[in-house]
Protein backbone atom coordinates (compact mmCIF):
# COMPACT_ATOMS: atom_id res chain seq x y z
CA UNK A 1 0.00 0.00 0.00
CA UNK A 2 1.36 3.38 -0.91
CA UNK A 3 -0.26 6.73 -1.62
CA UNK A 4 1.19 10.17 -2.12
CA UNK A 5 -0.03 13.54 -3.27
CA UNK A 6 1.72 16.89 -3.64
CA UNK A 7 -0.10 20.21 -3.70
CA UNK A 8 1.91 23.02 -5.31
CA UNK A 9 -0.38 25.86 -4.23
CA UNK A 10 2.00 28.58 -2.95
CA UNK A 11 -0.42 29.32 -0.10
CA UNK A 12 -0.54 25.68 1.04
CA UNK A 13 2.38 23.65 -0.31
CA UNK A 14 2.05 20.16 1.14
CA UNK A 15 2.99 16.57 0.40
CA UNK A 16 1.10 13.74 2.07
CA UNK A 17 2.26 10.12 1.96
CA UNK A 18 0.44 7.09 3.38
CA UNK A 19 2.46 3.92 3.93
CA UNK A 20 2.03 0.46 5.43
CA UNK A 21 4.48 -0.51 8.16
CA UNK A 22 6.82 -3.33 7.15
CA UNK A 23 6.03 -5.26 10.33
CA UNK A 24 2.37 -6.32 10.23
CA UNK A 25 2.36 -6.56 14.05
CA UNK A 26 3.52 -2.97 14.49
CA UNK A 27 1.29 -0.70 16.53
CA UNK A 28 -0.07 2.00 14.21
CA UNK A 29 0.43 -0.22 11.13
CA UNK A 30 -0.49 2.60 8.73
CA UNK A 31 1.58 5.77 8.73
CA UNK A 32 1.03 9.18 7.22
CA UNK A 33 3.96 11.49 6.63
CA UNK A 34 3.20 15.15 5.91
CA UNK A 35 5.62 17.79 4.69
CA UNK A 36 4.35 21.35 4.82
CA UNK A 37 6.26 24.21 3.21
CA UNK A 38 6.06 27.84 4.32
CA UNK A 39 7.08 29.78 1.20
CA UNK A 40 7.16 33.09 3.08
CA UNK A 41 9.56 31.93 5.83
CA UNK A 42 11.41 29.44 3.59
CA UNK A 43 10.91 26.61 6.08
CA UNK A 44 9.35 23.17 5.97
CA UNK A 45 7.88 20.91 8.62
CA UNK A 46 7.80 17.12 8.50
CA UNK A 47 5.33 15.20 10.69
CA UNK A 48 4.33 11.55 11.06
CA UNK A 49 1.11 10.05 12.38
CA UNK A 50 -0.11 6.52 13.01
CA UNK A 51 -3.42 4.90 12.11
CA UNK A 52 -5.01 1.50 12.75
CA UNK A 53 -6.58 1.13 9.29
CA UNK A 54 -5.78 2.13 5.73
CA UNK A 55 -9.19 3.83 5.53
CA UNK A 56 -8.40 6.11 8.48
CA UNK A 57 -5.01 7.02 7.00
CA UNK A 58 -6.40 7.85 3.57
CA UNK A 59 -9.32 9.79 5.07
CA UNK A 60 -6.88 11.94 7.05
CA UNK A 61 -4.90 12.59 3.83
CA UNK A 62 -8.07 13.64 1.99
CA UNK A 63 -9.12 15.85 4.91
CA UNK A 64 -5.69 17.52 4.98
CA UNK A 65 -5.86 18.30 1.27
CA UNK A 66 -9.26 19.95 1.72
CA UNK A 67 -8.10 21.84 4.84
CA UNK A 68 -10.38 19.94 7.23
CA UNK A 69 -7.94 17.59 9.00
CA UNK A 70 -7.33 17.63 12.70
CA UNK A 71 -3.88 16.96 14.17
CA UNK A 72 -2.12 13.74 13.21
CA UNK A 73 -2.57 11.01 15.81
CA UNK A 74 0.73 9.97 17.39
CA UNK A 75 2.46 6.79 16.31
CA UNK A 76 2.07 4.29 19.12
CA UNK A 77 5.48 3.04 20.25
CA UNK A 78 6.26 -0.65 20.06
CA UNK A 79 6.41 -2.53 23.32
CA UNK A 80 9.96 -2.29 24.61
CA UNK A 81 11.80 -5.48 25.41
CA UNK A 82 12.73 -5.38 29.06
CA UNK A 83 15.64 -6.92 30.90
CA UNK A 84 14.93 -9.08 33.92
CA UNK A 85 15.08 -7.12 37.17
CA UNK A 86 18.45 -7.08 38.83
CA UNK A 87 20.44 -7.64 35.64
CA UNK A 88 22.76 -4.67 35.17
CA UNK A 89 23.29 -3.14 31.77
CA UNK A 90 26.61 -4.18 30.24
CA UNK A 91 29.19 -1.36 30.26
CA UNK A 92 30.10 0.21 26.93
CA UNK A 93 33.72 -0.64 26.04
CA UNK A 94 36.03 2.34 25.66
CA UNK A 95 38.27 2.56 22.63
CA UNK A 96 42.02 2.34 23.34
CA UNK A 97 43.90 5.60 23.52
CA UNK A 98 44.24 8.61 25.74
CA UNK A 99 41.52 9.45 28.22
CA UNK A 100 40.42 12.98 28.80
Molecular structure report:
The protein is mainly beta and 100 residues long. It has a domain of 64 residues. The protein has 1 helix and 4 strands. Strands 1-2-3-4 form a 4-stranded antiparallel sheet, covered by helices on one side. A hairpin with a 4-residue loop joins strand 3 and strand 4. It is flat and about 55 Å long.
Brief synopsis:
The protein has 100 residues and is mainly beta.
Specify the number of helices.
1
Number of strands: 4
Major beta sheet summary? 4 strands, antiparallel
Which strands sit side by side, in order, in the main sheet? 1-2-3-4
How much is the average pLDDT?
A: 86
List keywords for this structure.
four-stranded antiparallel sheet; 4 strands; flat; mainly beta; 100 residues
Question: Any chance you could write out the topology, listing elements then pairs?
Answer:
Layout: E1 2-7, E2 13-20, E3 30-38, E4 43-51, H1 54-65
Antiparallel strand pairs: 1-2, 2-3, 3-4
Biased composition (Low complexity): 77-88
Biased composition (Pro residues): 90-100
Region (Disordered): 64-100
Amino acid sequence: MGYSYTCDDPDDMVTVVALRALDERAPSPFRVVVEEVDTHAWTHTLREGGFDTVGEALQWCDDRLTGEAGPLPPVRPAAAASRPAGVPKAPVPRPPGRSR
